[in-house]
């Protein structure tokens, strides 16, 4: 397609004007005008780029930002001399800290046997590239001498274990809404980790941390590794859901998977009737059925995590019952 006559005329007028004024303005001024016009054109094009291109560029930049490398002295100052202990696990102790800018953080001091400095930094690099609303954000780290530490965002409601374990002494149960919110959020977090190539772990209640609104976040560093493929992350997620159900929403607190399955098949009510709405009770039943799918005996019968998310977000009436075959049917 040839340029329009108007376009050709405009170009000729501009060229004529430039040829006419160059002797008077000088080469430097002319170059400045050309540079200014080019900048205006570039900015106009940039403003008209598709929105997803600009967003993706931003995300690419963000994903390359590394966690902050703190000194041991800074870690000690943040924790006020390791004054307030939040918890202790197999690979370290967690303390409450505070950044100079004000926000609280959780600082995990790793045990001396955690591995070489290279292994630790490789792990930090992996965790530092993870950015998801349902995975705990790594703010920084410390590697100084034999000291190893991780600085995480602070989760005021602690771990899920505290809310489902009678040994923790917590008397306030989670609501139906919170239970479903936690179940779906953890499923989203696991799906994201799977897509990042992180699929060699199991999910436990103490690895799920809760923010001020009870939104769940997976603490990826320190997750237990798989011993075998039969005990995969989908199965561990199903066990987590069964634990939630048995502690919070099942009419029989001593129920095992077989009993729950048989009651649902018979059309009997298995969800505690309380203050929850009919919609919330259906959501609880959906959690139970998804859990039964996830702990299937045959590895091939367990749905992938993206399918589990679809099941949790979809209509409860459209979810079929799984086969009556489970790993570890007695949930304790």
From TrEMBL:
Topology in membrane: Single-pass type I membrane protein
Compartment(s) of residence: Membrane
Molecular functions per Gene Ontology: ATP binding; protein serine/threonine kinase activity
Domain Protein kinase stretches: 80-332
Transmembrane annotation, as ranges: 6-39
Coiled coil stretches, renumbered: none
Binding-site residues, ATP: 108
PROSITE patterns assigned to the protein according to its UniProt record, in alphabetical order: PROTEIN_KINASE_ATP, PROTEIN_KINASE_DOM
Chief location: membrane
InterPro entries listed in its UniProt record: Kinase-like_dom_sf, LRK10/LRL21-25-like, Prot_kinase_dom, Protein_kinase_ATP_BS, Ser-Thr/Tyr_kinase_cat_dom
Domain of life: Eukaryota
Entry GO CC: membrane
Annotated keywords: ATP-binding, Glycoprotein, Kinase, Membrane, Nucleotide-binding, Serine/threonine-protein kinase, Signal, Transferase, Transmembrane, Transmembrane helix
Matches recorded under PANTHER family: RUST RESISTANCE KINASE LR10-RELATED
Protein name per UniProt: Protein kinase domain-containing protein
Organism of derivation: Cuscuta europaea (European dodder)
Lineage, highest ranks first: Eukaryota, Viridiplantae, Streptophyta, Embryophyta, Tracheophyta
């Amino acid at each position: 397609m040839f340029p329009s006559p108007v376009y050709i005329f405009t170009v000729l007028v501009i060229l004529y004007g430039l040829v006419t004024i160059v002797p008077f303005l000088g080469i430097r001024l002319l170059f400045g005008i050309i540079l200014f016009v080019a900048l205006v054109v570039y900015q106009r094009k940039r403003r008209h780029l598709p929105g997803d291109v600009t967003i993706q560029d931003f995300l690419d930049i963000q994903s390359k930002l590394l966690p902050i490398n703190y000194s041991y002295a800074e870690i000690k100052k943040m924790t006020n001399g390791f004054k307030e202990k939040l918890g202790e696990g197999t690979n370290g102790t967690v303390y409450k800290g505070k950044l100079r800018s004000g926000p609280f953080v959780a600082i995990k001091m790793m045990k001396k046997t955690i591995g070489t400095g290279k292994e630790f930094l490789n792990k930090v690099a992996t965790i530092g590239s993870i950015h998801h609303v349902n995975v705990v954000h790594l703010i920084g780290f410390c590697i100084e001498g034999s000291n190893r530490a991780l600085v995480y965002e602070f989760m005021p409601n602690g771990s899920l274990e505290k809310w489902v374990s009678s040994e923790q002494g917590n008397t306030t149960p989670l609501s139906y809404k919170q239970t479903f919110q936690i179940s779906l959020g953890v499923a989203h977090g696991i799906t994201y980790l799977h897509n990042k190539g992180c699929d060699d772990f199991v999910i436990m209640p103490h690895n799920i941390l809760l923010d001020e609104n009870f939104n769940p976040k997976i603490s990826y560093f320190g997750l237990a590794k798989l011993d075998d493929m039969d005990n995969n992350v989908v199965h561990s997620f199903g066990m987590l859901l069964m634990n939630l159900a048995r502690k919070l929403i099942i009419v029989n607190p001593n129920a095992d998977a077989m009993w729950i399955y048989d009651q649902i098949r018979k059309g009997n009510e298995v969800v505690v009737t309380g203050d929850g709405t009919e919609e919330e009770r259906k959501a609880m039943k959906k959690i139970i059925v998804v859990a039964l799918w996830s702990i299937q005996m045959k590895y091939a019968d367990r749905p992938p995590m993206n399918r589990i998310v679809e099941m949790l977000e979809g209509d409860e009436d459209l979810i079929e019952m799984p086969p009556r075959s489970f790993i570890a049917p007695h949930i304790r």
